[in-house]
Amino acid sequence: MDTPASLDLELIEEAVAQLARLNITANLDAIERLDRADARLRLHWSGGKALYRVAVKRGLRPATLGAVALRLKEFGPDTLLVTDHVSPPLAERLRELGIQFIDSAGNAFLIHPALLIWVKGERPPDRLHPSAPSRAFKASGLRVLFALLAVPGLVGQSYRAIAEQAGVAHGTVGWVMAELPRLGFLAEIGGQRRLLQPERLLRQWVEAYARTLRPKQLLRTFQAPTIHWWHELDFAHYGLVLGGEAAAARITGLIQPQTVTLYGTKAASLLFMTKQPMRSAPDGNVEILSRFWDFEPTPPELAPPLLIYADLLATGDARCLEAARAMEGRLLDRFAG
User: Fold this and answer.
1) What Pfam families does this protein's entry cite (predicted)?
2) Contact in structure between 109 and 91 (CB atoms under 8 Å)
């Protein structure tokens, strides 16, 4: 069997070993990524068998669940998520989303004719330690990557121009741009810098944004008696732009917002609060985050589409995933050809 270099064979073998405790045996067939899956896994048990397409993902977290779920839905019903550890709350969310999984701690959700496996609450092995992310996928680096992905042609401009659009120091751009070729995301072609694998970069950015950058940007959360006002409110009057579910509703018409996400400054959030009938609440239906980019989105009252898409996936909510799927095609079309 030929094994692709990027296949996390050790993790798959650890997760499959846990299935043996349930009298399920497995045969792994490594494959090329023609369908974006990592491998095929054949499971056998008394009276039945199943063939799964495998997607391997370490370090699954609530913030990254939406992005992972969207990928898995593309593979069809016979897809199996293999990961290092699924906490009980994540296990419940995966089951609600209909995503089958196994992990190296022994947790599992498998559903197939004549087979139902549901195990949660198993603790991860002590040796599990998440690997440190590349500097480019830490907070300041993510701001640079966001600008490169959101502003057409920016990658070919000067470091100073990139720094201005991303709202970061000139030196930050320097080390991010130096790291991207090593990660396979940047090359100089015909004397011009070009982004490589933009689709993969976009998806990695979305996951890292939800995990690392988004929590740092949260300024205030409020509870409003109703959020219907997002249709008519002049957000520019408060120095705010609309993101998240409400912005996606304007763009796609496929979602009924349950929260309103706004981006602006701390001063803007205070002004907005004094003019609206709402109170501070940690889990409220209105959230205001700090704007972290310095380019003008189109239209100016909405956050950049990439950020709206990332906000949708950060919810991990099934109804948001459908709107995100509709937006994804438009985002990826920019990089076609």
Assistant:
1) AbiEi_2
2) yes
